[in-house]
Design goal:
The chain is an alpha+beta fold. The protein has two domains: 253 residues, PK beta-barrel domain-like (M1 Pyruvate Kinase, Domain 3); 93 residues, no CATH class. The strands form five sheets. It has a seven-stranded mixed β-barrel with strand order 1-11-10-14-13-12-16. Strands 4-9-5 form a three-stranded mixed β-sheet. Strands 6-7-8 form a three-stranded antiparallel β-sheet, with helices on one face. Strand 1 and strand 2 form a beta hairpin. The two termini are 30 Å apart.
């Protein structure tokens, strides 16, 4: 199962426009270089120029509260640290964000442009080395499945610009919401490797149309009413450095790859440990079914008995009997409808007391 990267973006200044990238090198436990590196602190915010500690978005100008920001288009040159700002296609200001006079030029512009919304004189702050000024305290990347965006369009009856979600990586899967089944799994993208950390809960910033700067769609309400949650997209952390590019395949690890990651630090012995291993397997796969909102799977989508045997035997346990959820109704039996399987805890064979998880 592979899906190509459609687009890659960074957002050099929190709340301002996206910057498309063809390729980018990522480092272990870091975000995309220059992503959310800068932010515009409100005049009422007590902040140093260097944001050494993480601060919530409420301290900054942001789309959730300040939709007027979407009227601007920006370009950031990472070789000079110069930010150029456009409005309606015309340049309105330009300044070097790492130089006092350049920051002053940009700050004066936003003071006039935002008026009372700036709550005084806004101030450019820069994230400390290895940090970002994002909604997530740890340096992560965000990823959106375009098929999930289309599913939101289906329930709202309106076009939804994917840039409402301000993700770093966009891809197009065979089905919506499949990315939610990847939590804890490893992803290979280009030369780099990632772990899917969590789903992303959305805020009112997604109500702002990035093309018109108008609040024209309550995405959070649509998600809650249509799907029973307010999530769209997933966070990734980098586990192996490397370059990623548009067109690179995104390859999620297998079910057993995900389970293997969850076994990090897992120790024990005898039958009790083997039962614990089986319970962890059941939890891992059951969460996949829950994530997709469908507790059924066709028998043909199950892993093979041989695969199960190799995995469990490699950990010193006899493989349990594998059991799937019931098959899908005939009208839903298709490749796009398949869902994960799990081990039925009640179908476990007796465990050999002498075997330990190695």
């Amino acid at each position: 199962m592979e899906f190509p990267v459609e687009t890659i973006y960074r957002y050099p200044v929190k709340g301002l426009s996206a910057q498309a990238l063809d390729t980018v090198a990522v480092s272990e436990d870091q975000a995309i270089p220059n992503d959310r590196r800068f932010a515009l602190a409100l005049g009422s915010t007590q902040a140093d120029r260097a944001a050494t500690e993480w601060m919530s978005k409420s301290h900054f100008l942001m789309l959730q509260r300040n939709e007027k920001l979407a009227q601007l288009q920006t370009e950031f040159d990472d070789t000079t640290d110069i930010l150029t700002i456009f409005r309606n296609g015309k340049q309105v200001t330009r300044g070097k964000l790492t130089q006092a006079i350049g920051r002053t030029v940009i700050e004066d512009f936003f003071s006039a442009f935002m008026g009372d919304e700036a709550r005084g004189e806004p101030k450019i702050v820069e994230a400390a080395s290895g940090r970002t000024i994002s909604d997530h305290a740890a340096p992560v990347l965000s990823m959106i499945n375009l098929a999930s965006v289309r599913d939101i369009e289906r329930i709202t009856g309106k076009a939804v610009d994917p840039l409402r979600f301000r993700a770093n990586i966009y891809f197009d899967a065979d089905e919506p919401w499949v990315e939610f089944t990847w939590t804890d799994r490893e992803l290979a993208i280009g030369e780099a490797r990632f772990v899917v950390e969590s789903r992303i809960d959305r805020c009112a910033a997604t109500s702002v149309n990035p093309a018109t700067a108008e609040r024209d769609l309550n995405v959070v309400k649509a998600l809650q009413q249509g799907f029973g949650h307010i999530d769209c997209g997933v966070y990734l952390s980098v586990t192996k450095a490397g370059a990623i590019s548009v067109g690179d395949p995104i390859s999620p690890s297998s079910f057993f790859g995900r389970l293997r990651r969850r076994l990090t630090g897992f120790t024990g012995s005898s039958a009790g440990s083997c039962r614990e291993l089986s319970a962890l397997a059941a939890s891992t796969a059951t969460s996949d079914c829950s994530a997709t909102g469908d507790a059924s799977a066709p028998v043909s989508s199950c892993f093979s008995a041989a695969t199960s045997s190799r995995f469990f035997s490699g950990l010193g346990c006899s493989p349990p009997a594998a059991a799937c959820c019931g098959p899908l109704p005939p009208d839903r039996f298709s490749k796009r409808s398949r869902r994960p399987c799990w081990f039925a805890p009640w179908a476990l064979p007796p465990w050999p007391s002498a075997l330990a998880i190695r």
